[in-house]
């Protein structure tokens, strides 16, 4: 280890694992974005809270920036280390620490994957209900950092709704316990909620108390074919009124074509403009009949053209793959992603305006829509033509994102629904947050991270 600063870190924390091989620097120095060249000084993989504190205190002494790292499945550049930072990966801190039957609380380290946390909950006859396609690789710490949502927000809400407590190492290396699992705690500011969604800029989340709940009743999955986006919104209103929805996800024919080309199986014979995968409670015959009645009413109104209901768990999984496989199927096309949100009541007007904007500004690009229509979260993916230069493609997309941000501001929306601001969306933060809000956020960061070493440049510029 030739760098004396790294030698000092190794001496301070003898059990700390440090990686400096070029392949490791690339692997740990980036997330699912590929727009920055990874260039971290090293990768630290602590196995204890004490080692995390050692790293943070060392970083303060040497004034070396830190990039906290979970599963690196983000799409906003929030886990990118491109300027000589030390990546602080929590992947070795992946244990379940305890379970409280009375409180229905699962204590976990931050590096545990979402899927492992879900499995631990099921072992106690309960569920941790936050869920999305990257469950096998994303981590609880990363979910907390971005307040991750996913496919069941309509039923269960976002990550912040299920965090009863957090253990955090501050920017100066102090260990703080936030809320400690209390149901009622009116003793000042709730710093736990402040940490959720802070993208690693205020502290390093090293542990979490997850609230668990009862498993939902038996459910059924239905795939619907619809004529247009207006019909998607009409069917959502109908199904929400008639059924107890667990999920309601939409995607376009363009998205479906990519998933089918990627290996998924077609479920409906025809080709249609829009599709919905919905999951709803179906515990008894009455609930199942209500679903059929809702389908028939939607068909009679001309909102539903065709549909299929899963007859087995395997078929349900196949239908869900049509939605959950979209991101993976688009990856080879190097998509430029917009992850936006508006209030549900603003969705119709916003969609009408934004569809016209994208059709006008992107005539040469393939645009793929999908998203969580039930919570106002839409994913817009612009696919890069194979012959087009990467830099030219990004520049053109960023030009249009400025216009998109203005439309979002007009409709009171957000430039980031569930992946954070990171590096990618930082130029557009002012479309979502006022100057006064941003100034307050900067001030909060200075309190928690006086030397501004935690994930600098993410969320807002280094000051």
From TrEMBL:
Cofactor(s) demanded: FAD
Keyword field: FAD, Flavoprotein, Oxidoreductase
PANTHER family registered for this protein in UniProt: D-2-HYDROXYGLUTARATE DEHYDROGENASE, MITOCHONDRIAL (PTHR43716)
FAD-binding PCMH-type domain span: 36-215
Name this polypeptide is given: D-2-hydroxyglutarate dehydrogenase
Organism: Aerosticca soli
Pfam families: FAD-oxidase_C (PF02913), FAD_binding_4 (PF01565)
Family according to the record: Belongs to the FAD-binding oxidoreductase/transferase type 4 family.
SUPFAM superfamilies: FAD-binding/transporter-associated domain-like (SSF56176), FAD-linked oxidases, C-terminal domain (SSF55103)
């Amino acid at each position: 280890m030739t760098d004396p600063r790294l030698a000092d870190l190794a001496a301070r924390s003898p059990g700390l694992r440090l990686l400096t091989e070029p392949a490791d620097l690339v692997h740990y120095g980036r997330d699912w974005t590929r727009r920055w060249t990874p260039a971290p000084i090293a990768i630290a993989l602590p196995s204890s809270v004490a080692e995390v504190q050692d790293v943070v205190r060392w970083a303060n002494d040497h004034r070396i920036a830190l990039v906290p790292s979970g599963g690196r499945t983000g799409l906003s550049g929030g886990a990118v280390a491109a300027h000589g930072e030390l990546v602080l990966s929590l992947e070795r801190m992946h244990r379940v620490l305890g379970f409280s039957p009375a409180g229905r609380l699962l204590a976990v380290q931050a590096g545990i994957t979402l899927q492992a946390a879900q499995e631990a909950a099921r072992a106690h006859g309960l569920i941790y209900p936050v869920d999305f396609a990257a469950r096998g690789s994303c981590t609880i710490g990363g979910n907390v950092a971005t307040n991750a949502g996913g496919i069941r927000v309509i039923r269960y809400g976002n990550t912040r709704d299920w965090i009863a407590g957090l253990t955090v190492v501050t920017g100066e290396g102090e260990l703080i316990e936030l809320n400690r699992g209390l149901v009622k705690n009116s003793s000042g500011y709730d710093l736990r909620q402040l940490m959720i969604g802070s993208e690693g800029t205020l502290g390093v989340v090293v542990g979490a108390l997850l609230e668990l709940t009862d498993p939902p009743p038996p459910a059924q999955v239905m795939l619907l074919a619809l004529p247009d986006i207006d019909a998607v919104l009409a069917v959502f209103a109908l199904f929400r009124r008639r059924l107890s929805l667990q999920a309601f996800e939409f995607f376009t024919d363009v998205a479906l074509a990519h998933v089918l080309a990627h290996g998924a199986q077609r479920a409906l014979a025809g080709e249609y403009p829009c599709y919905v995968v919905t999951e709803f409670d179906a515990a008894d015959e009455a609930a199942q009949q209500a679903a059929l009645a809702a389908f028939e009413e939607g068909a009679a109104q001309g909102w539903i053209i065709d549909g299929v209901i899963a007859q087995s768990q395997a078929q349900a999984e196949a239908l869900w793959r049509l939605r959950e496989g979209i991101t993976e199927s688009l990856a080879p096309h190097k998509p430029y992603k917009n992850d936006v949100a508006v209030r549900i009541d603003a969705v119709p007007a916003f969609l009408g305006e934004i569809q016209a904007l994208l059709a006008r500004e992107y005539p040469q690009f393939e645009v793929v829509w999908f998203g969580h229509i039930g919570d106002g979260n839409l994913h817009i993916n612009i696919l890069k033509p194979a012959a087009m230069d990467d830099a030219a493609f990004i520049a053109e997309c960023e030009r249009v994102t400025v216009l998109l941000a203005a439309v979002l501001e007009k409709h009171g929306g957000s430039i980031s629904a569930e992946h954070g601001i990171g590096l990618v969306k930082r130029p557009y933060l002012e479309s979502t947050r006022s100057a006064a809000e941003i100034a307050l956020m900067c001030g909060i960061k200075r309190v928690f991270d006086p030397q501004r070493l935690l994930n600098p440049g993410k969320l807002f510029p280094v000051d």
